[in-house]
Write a structure and sequence with these properties.
With 292 residues, the chain is of the alpha/beta class. Helices cover 46% and strands 20% of the residues. The protein has an 8-stranded mixed barrel with strand order 1-2-4-5-6-7-8-9, surrounded by 5 helices. The longest helix is centred in the first third of the chain and has 21 residues. The radius of gyration is 20 Å and the shape is globular. It starts with 9 loop residues before the first helix and ends in a 16-residue tail after the last helix. The structure holds ligand C2E and magnesium ion (3 copies). The site of ligand C2E has 23 residues, from strand 2, helix 3, helix 4 and strand 6.
Length: 292
């Protein structure tokens, strides 16, 4: 609210800080230091061929090892990082760490798969985004073919010419683009005509409610049909149950990601999974008791 009233009110607001505001204030201070203190870590979650369980990619997901609070999930700090502009620096750190790790795995002789990084709208819209990508690719010496970015529908919403250009430039460089959390944003399927994405990731909220003949069932079925007719790959995120996987297979969904196969794991564990190449899911495990 203080923001709406203009910059001059910040000080007044500061002197009458309530607990909630104070928490945010502390969090921002810590967040600024976290980069310098190297408190961020990337976890990785495999993305699998829906039919075979072969690992075809992985998503890098940031974690914050806070000295007092322990492991903090991105939902707790990414929004503030976006608000404060810190997302630019955190985002660069993420891309670089993911590229470096992927390159290291390749040099260890592990099978090459692409790594996906989540890019927030602020980061994507920056004029120097492509420039930074180029720099990181050069510095880490990664083949851009093994790099994918995940953006959300709201980036496409304002139908901006510069968005199309940035996407085209990334793809010319060899980087793939996937549309994350698909179905939750405001965009419509017609956007897919203007913006050429490589993969669409159906949001996990649809998968959660997926049962034969449920509302989600028909939504997912039509998304998959349409997306595939446009020759775009389709992935489902948040696949937790065997039944969901079987339905998705019958619908010809290309790829799946979710706790059924593996939770996001630290880099060392991901290296072991990569070595295995193909994963088997563990339907016999109790709820909450997964292998990883
Ligand atoms: P997302 O990109 O949609 O990532 C998928 C989220 O779903 C991850 O949560 C993942 O742990 C979780 N997930 C995966 N499989 C399952 C499942 O079977 N069931 C359930 N219930 N959840 C599952 P996480 O790691 O907490 O990340 C949350 C969000 O934070 C991400 O959603 C993404 O939007 C954002 N995020 C994560 N890392 C980064 C980053 O490096 N940069 C930016 N800008 N955002 C990030
Ligand atoms: Mg994502
Ligand atoms: Mg998602
Ligand atoms: Mg998300």
């Amino acid at each position: 609210r203080a923001k709406e009233q203009g910059k001059n009110n910040y000080q007044i607001y500061h002197s009458s800080m309530n607990i909630q505001t104070y928490k945010i204030f502390l969090l921002e201070k810590d967040l600024r230091r976290a980069l310098l203190r190297d408190e961020f870590e990337l976890y990785y979650q495999p993305r699998l061929d829906a039919n075979t369980g072969r690992i075809v990619g992985m998503e890098a997901l940031i974690r914050w090892n806070h000295p007092e609070w322990g492991l903090v999930s991105p939902d707790e700090f990414i929004p503030l990082a976006e608000e404060t502009g810190l997302i630019i620096y955190i985002g660069e750190w993420v891309i670089e760490a993911a590229c470096r790790q992927n390159k290291a795995w390749q040099e260890q002789g592990l099978p090459s798969v692409s790594v996906s990084v989540n890019i927030s709208a602020h980061q994507f819209m920056r004029k120097d985004f492509i420039h930074h990508m180029n720099r990181i690719i050069a510095e880490t010496d990664i083949n851009p073919h093994w790099l994918e970015i995940e953006i959300t529908e709201n980036i496409l919403m304002d139908n901006d010419q510069s968005t199309i250009l940035t996407m085209q430039n990334l793809q010319k460089m060899g980087i793939s683009i996937s549309l994350d959390d698909f179905g939750t944003g405001y965009s419509s399927l017609s956007y897919l005509k203007h913006f050429k994405v490589d993969t669409i990731k159906i949001d996990k909220s649809f998968i959660r409610d997926l049962r034969v003949d449920s509302e989600s069932y028909f939504i997912i079925k039509s998304i998959i049909q349409l997306v595939k007719s446009l020759h775009i790959l389709v992935a489902a995120e948040g696949v937790e149950q065997e039944e969901q996987l079987h339905i998705l297979r019958r619908m010809n969904c290309d790829q799946v990601q979710g706790y059924l196969y593996s939770k996001p794991v630290p880099a060392a564990k991901m290296g072991e999974l990569l070595k295995r190449g193909t994963l088997h899911y563990h339907s016999s495990l109790e709820e909450g008791e997964r292998l990883f």
